[in-house]
Write a structure and sequence with these properties.
Strand content: over 45%
Number of helices: 0
CATH architecture of the largest domain: Sandwich
Largest sheet: 9 strands, mixed
Number of domains: 3
Number of strands: 29
Distance between the termini: 64 Å
CATH class of the largest domain: Mainly Beta
Radius of gyration: 24 Å
């Protein structure tokens, strides 16, 4: 199928020859995404869109993709144009407000109108709807839209340190392998976090609650669930502060995660709902982590490394604990692998079992 043609429709007719009319008709539409191929894992769509009109392109995102990078170029002087990414469920993942994210119109500090990445995109066919605003000075608005499949594997996924001493740096190393198209990547460290890891069991229709006391100065609060023993289960995740819902992730599986930047100090409540558990109950992994420089940090060297498809490199950094975590919690750190466009394409973790003063 041609790259610009992602939809095909046909009418299915059911006809009983003993009757004088067609008994049933139904319209069937099939959407086929463009398959990105080795070694680039990229597809460029070139076209134009009239003022106040849209056109769509479809790209297939494979399993294991860390980031779907989309770049817009080749636009005319003053042209007001944008794209909206729509996931395989048909849900837009960009704002569709009438003034948001157009070139030569919107505030680029709020939304990048010419380059964006979608981290951990759902596998399946994505629609990229290109739209020209009604106020564009050009009746015809040319463009080039590039979709790139990106991702790396970081191994080991988690480096476990049985014990570290406060104030002493410990060396850690990860191997990064590029699994899709060519990239230029760099590593980023950050503050350590205080982690609560559990492996609870939840029944179908039941709810479980966890509380987190987040101190002042916390930079990020991450909560995740996953790895169910019943792989067909559907679990939902919601985070509250008091009676106010501050984050939620509820899709059709048990792999859910939320991240809250610069959370205000106080007590947070995490609710896990067993929305649908076919076997009656399932075990799952629970993790909450709040990150603060007061706990210590992960440091990695600066510098960008080009990686061809299938190539690999190593990252060696240090982990330093600044304090002993609260009772019942352990220290947890993270290194992120980012592209030169800022897309996060991989993550490695370090878990500290115990800290000696």
């Amino acid at each position: 199928m041609h790259a610009a043609a992602g939809k095909a429709s046909a009418i299915l007719r059911v006809d009983d020859p003993s009757t004088s009319v067609v008994d049933f008709e139904v319209l069937n539409t099939v959407v086929t995404g463009v398959e990105t191929k080795k070694p680039s894992y990229a597809q460029t769509f070139a076209g134009s869109v009239d003022r106040n009109s849209t056109t769509s392109y479809f790209v297939t995102v494979p399993e294991g993709t860390s980031a779907l990078q989309v770049d817009l170029s080749g636009i005319a002087t003053g042209s007001q144009i944008r794209w909206t990414a729509i996931n395989p469920w048909g849900v837009p993942v960009d704002s569709t407000a009438s003034a948001d994210c157009y070139t030569n119109y919107s505030d680029a500090s709020v939304c990048k109108p010419q380059e964006r990445a979608y981290e951990n995109p759902l596998a399946g066919v994505w629609e990229l709807e290109v739209e020209s605003r009604r106020t564009s000075p050009s009746l015809n608005n040319p463009f080039r839209l590039a979709a790139k499949i990106q991702g790396v594997t970081v191994s080991p996924a988690t480096v476990t340190l049985p014990n570290v001493k406060v104030g002493e740096a410990t060396s850690v190393t990860w191997t990064v392998k590029n699994t899709f198209g060519p990239l230029t990547v760099s590593a980023q460290g950050g503050p350590l976090g205080s982690a609560n890891r559990q492996r609870p069991t939840i029944a179908d229709g039941a709810s479980q609650e966890y509380t987190i006391d987040v101190p002042a100065g916390t930079q990020r609060l991450d909560v995740s669930i996953g790895n169910p023993s019943d792989v067909a289960s559907d679990l939902d995740l919601t985070v509250y502060k008091g009676d106010v819902q501050v984050a939620q992730q509820a899709d059709g599986d048990a792999e859910e995660a939320v991240s809250i930047a610069n959370p205000t100090a106080g007590t947070y409540t995490v609710v896990v709902d067993g929305y649908a558990v076919p076997s009656g109950s399932t075990a799952y992994d629970y993790l909450d982590v709040y990150y603060s420089p007061a706990l210590g940090g992960v440091t990695v060297p600066a510098g960008a490394v080009p990686l061809a498809s299938g190539a690999q490199t190593s990252i060696t950094g240090t982990v330093t604990a600044a304090s002993v975590p609260p009772a019942g919690r352990s220290l947890f750190g993270e290194v992120t692998v980012v592209t030169d466009e800022g897309a996060v394409v991989g993550r490695g973790s370090v878990a500290i079992t115990s800290v000696t003063p």
